[in-house]
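[job 0412] stage=complex_fold ligand=DP6 status=START
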Amino acid sequence: MKIKKGIAQEGFVKWESPSNIALVKYWGKYGRQYPTNPSISFTLSNAKTSTSCKYTIKENSQDPIISNFKFEGKENLAFENRIQKFLTSVIDYFPVLNQLSLELESENTFPHSSGIASSASAMSALALCICDIEKSIVEDYKENFTQRASILARLGSGSASRSVIEKLAIWGKNDFVAHADNDYAIAFGDNVHTDFHKYHDDILIVSKNEKSVSSSAGHKLMDGNPYAEARYQDANKNLGLILNAMKSGDHDAFIHIVEREAMSLHALMMCSDPSYILMEPNTIEVINRVRSFRRETNIPVCFTLDAGPNVHLLYPDDYTDKLTPFISEQLMPLTQNHNIIRDHVGNGPTKLD
Ligand code: DP6
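[job 0412] stage=complex_fold status=DONE, emitting structure tokens
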């Protein structure tokens, strides 16, 4: 890797990148953040991180990569140390980092303490900034930019690999999509029914307290989980089923798989050793009310969960008006301080000026 000759010694890039919600869940990993099963997610739109990066090409490769890190306007040493450690650990994949000194500023559009995962949007925004710098300063750059950003995002946080892709992303080798890869996520939105391009994800914040077991610790516990192998096979099978459902626009089949995936994720936590529960009583109450409402009305609304107590309510755009009173009257009272983030499938990251 060589830096282009005669270029400016400093510059600035800024990217905004969204969070995502998995339909078939990544849970369990090996080696350098490779997934033990394939996953698929909707890329979101409103829940996002914007990161700006002022870079200088440095003389001495021993100097730290990060010279300053601000989160939501304030210096944040804990985040700075984490990112410094992460970027140092990936220099073998991204040798350009040896030559860079970075001043970073990052902020989320959703409240920091809302209890929704920010690692996917944060790591993908950071990865896009670094890969953008790499693209503009490295001589003979021939990489696929999105793939490269997905790889770096993945090394930061597995699910972040999917956030660089618009609409619908698949990450991980599987029996159904030949070009899917464990290194990076690929786009799949163009292959599904257009109903799924306009799906809503209303995130009901049941609790914004910090989780008792982090996702990283949860993934590790899969190593000793007696059901792990069966789970990896089930996830692979579910990917095949959900792809068929999404291609044909079969909402009932889609709902069936999405909800089973959410339940399986939490069942895996409950049978880990030590076992743990991330759902709260109101998580279960929301699930029961969503299922009753669906039975009574036939409206194709379903829930999914990530590794926490908050419920993601998924439904097609056409049903928004019919769902709004149900959400405000029956579900909002079950959230913490009537906290809800209304989001929908989005077009992926954007480069900002
Ligand atoms: C339940 O990507 O947060 O949201 O790779 O350790 O950073 P790390 O884990 P992370 O795990 C996400 C798990 C999940 C399911 C998913 O998004 O696929």
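The chain has a mean pLDDT of 96.
[job 0412] exit 0
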